Amino acid sequence: MSIALSLLLALLLDYFLKEPKHFHPLVGFGNLAIAIEKKLNQANAPKESQKRSGMLAWSLAVIPLTLVALIIDLLLSDSPVLLALVGGVVLYLAIGWQSLLSHALAIAKPLNAGDLDSARTAVGMIVSRDTSELDEQAVASAATESVLENGADAIFAAIFWFCVLGIPGVVLYRLSNTLDAMWGYKNERFLHFGWCAARIDDLLNFIPARLTALSYALVGKTRIAIESWKQQAPTWKSPNAGPVMAAGAGAINVSLGGAAIYHGQLQERPQLGPESGDQPSAKSIEEACALVNRVLVMWGVGLYILIALSVAITSGAAA
Questions:
Q1: pLDDT at res. 181
Q2: Which residue ranges does UniProt annotate as crossing the membrane (predicted)?
Q3: How high is the pLDDT of residue 29?
Q4: Structural contact between residues 298 and 218, judged by C-beta atoms closer than 8 angstroms
Q5: d(CA 207, CA 97)
Q6: Are 190 and 147 in contact (CB under 8 A)?
Q7: Band of residue 232 on the pLDDT scale cut at 50, 70, 90
Q8: What's the whole-number mean pLDDT along residues 54-79?
């Protein structure tokens, strides 16, 4: 039951407080990661040496903090209420529910008003592709894809690992995911050094991504979502983003994907969602946000039912 209480507390804190305004622990962790990377990343070293340095860097950044989280979890194990409160605060710091929605709606609003320049600026804050020359449809496509993908990364994967491994689980996931965002680039500086961070993030997201894709399908246009997932996910380079974005695009019946410019280079990307689906727009951004919210409700209700059944079975066995 403490897991359900922690989730409820985390969502309430996120809803009312949003992200911490003055200091977020992940900002401090990011600064630590920058310092470690500057010390250990030697771009001119041999490939295998760079990979070993990346593994050491990941270990130095993630393992000590995860062990601290484990110790806290063990110390509070005899106090379920306190464990639930601390767990709720940690989970709140690990998810980005309202942040994701606010960034997305900050793009949809100017699009609805015909203010393309403001929409380009807003979408540039949440995507890595070049946005200066995007038209309205391309801005909407980038934003919709980002909401669908980050729904898995920023919300549902964190909740999954909290439910599975408690406080240390969500700390391990969030720190690993942050390092992937910082070091997981396939450029000269990070191609080998960031290999460890990218692979661990892929592993940790494997199950949550597919649960998210299934959840998108269940609360959206199920048949289209499943068909898009089956046909399009294998065509994407990312083993986890493919299922999530394909199922999400199908769930809201929008046609996404296609060419985009990243770091000055044009990349041809496969189709996402039905080709005959709706064109990306401010409406598709809002529908993606609504889809994430529906999945969040479904997960909350499902978690409560599972816990209630577990308690009932345990009570029945004891009697």
A1: 94
A2: 55-76, 81-100, 154-173, 296-318
A3: 96
A4: yes
A5: 20
A6: no
A7: very high
A8: 97
CA distance linking residue 40 with residue 53, whole number of Å: 6
What the block records as the tokens of 305 is 């039912």
Structure confidence at residue 202 as a pLDDT band (50, 70, 90) = very high
| Count of CA atoms in the C-beta half-sphere (13 A) of 124 | 13
State what percent of residues in the chain have pLDDT above 90.
Answer: 80
Residue 192 CA, distance from chain mean position: 23
pLDDT at 264: 62
In b/e form, how buried is each residue of 193-213, taking b as 16+ CB within 10 angstroms?
Answer: bbbbbbbbbbebbeebbbbbb
pLDDT tens digit sequence for 99-108: 999 999 999 9
Annotate 41-65 with DSSP letters as a single string. --TTS-HHHHHHHHHHHHHHHHHHH
Burial of residue 309 (number of CB atoms within 10 Å: 0-12, 13-18, 19+): exposed
Residue 20 main-chain phi, psi, to 5 deg: -55, 130
| Amino acid making up residue 47 | K
* pLDDT at residue 263 tops 70: no
What does the pLDDT read at residue 258? Answer: 82
Mark residue 263 as left, alpha or beta (left: phi above 0; alpha: psi -120 to 50; beta: remaining). left
The Cα 252–Cα 216 span in angstroms is: 9
